[in-house]
Write a structure and sequence with these properties.
By secondary structure, this protein is an all-alpha fold. The protein has a domain of about 150 residues: Serine Threonine Protein Phosphatase 5, Tetratricopeptide repeat (Alpha Horseshoe). Helices cover about 65% and strands about 0% of the residues. It contains 9 helices and no strands. It is elongated, with a radius of gyration of 51 Å. It starts with a helix and ends in a 16-residue tail after the last helix.
Length: about 240
């Protein structure tokens, strides 16, 4: 098995596992460092594999990019390597230059079309690369813009108010009429018989000594005939409420 075939096999094992294995990642890094002469093919395998993965595997793929990029940066710093993208033979420096060419697509995939988890992981990896100067400031700033634009678009999608129903947009709301409580009719005064009124006045005058007994007694008799007798059960007795 060639070194590139071994690298691809190990890469698929890393991104296909349910959890990231430190030992598998170490094996992948060692395999990549041995194949830096074929830097273009390494970058092609990395990016092609990433794009073919379902969302859960993309986080492991991002970790693979991170591990290989930082290992290559460590070699460049340690041995003061330089690279030319047009050189026929690759090394760790040219590997970093060529991997920069696919980072925009990688981060677009992670933060724009990915999930909240992939966006968060991409931001953490970018923060690590910034602190360790894994890539040039120009590249890192470009990646930060990708993350920033994705966050702004995501915020717009969350805060956009819902569109009203066009079928009811032009309808005029009809105010609800107030509820009128009917009032009880005012009690009407019972008309008083004028004859009865005159007799009552005469009795009042008799009580004050204005009439003699001969007139008072016939008046009481006539008034008793005009007024209905009070029934014993017509008057309710007040009692203490139970």
């Amino acid at each position: 098995m060639t070194s590139l075939a071994a690298f691809e096999k190990t890469l698929k094992e890393v991104v296909g596992a349910k959890r990231v294995s430190a030992s598998k990642m170490t094996s992948l890094t060692e395999s990549a460092l041995k194949s830096m002469d074929n830097d273009t093919q390494l970058v092609s395998i990395l990016y092609r594999t990433h794009k073919s993965l379902p969302t859960p595997g993309k986080v492991s793929s991002l970790y693979a990019f991170d591990a290989l990029a930082r290992a290559a940066r460590s070699k460049v710093t340690k041995y003061n390597l330089t690279g030319d993208v047009n050189s026929e033979k690759g090394n760790c420096a040219t590997f970093l230059l060529k991997i920069e060419g696919v980072l925009d697509g990688l981060f677009q995939d992670m933060v724009v079309t990915g999930t909240p988890e992939t966006r968060e992981k991409a931001k953490k990896i970018l923060d690590i690369w910034t602190k360790s100067s894994t890539f040039s400031p120009k590249v890192l700033m470009r990646l930060k813009d990708v993350v920033k634009d994705a966050e702004q678009e995501n915020g717009k999608a969350v805060t956009t108010p819902p569109v009203g129903d066009p079928r009811t947009a032009n309808q005029v709301s009809t105010p609800t009429p107030p509820i009128v409580t009917p009032q009880a009719p005012a009690p009407t005064a019972t008309p008083v018989d004028p004859t009865q009124s005159t007799l009552l006045a005469l009795l009042h005058q008799a009580a004050n000594g204005g009439l003699n007994t001969c007139v008072e007694q016939p008046l009481k008799y006539i008034l008793s005939l005009l007024m209905p007798p009070i029934q014993p059960n017509s008057v309710k007795r007040w009692c203490i409420p139970p």
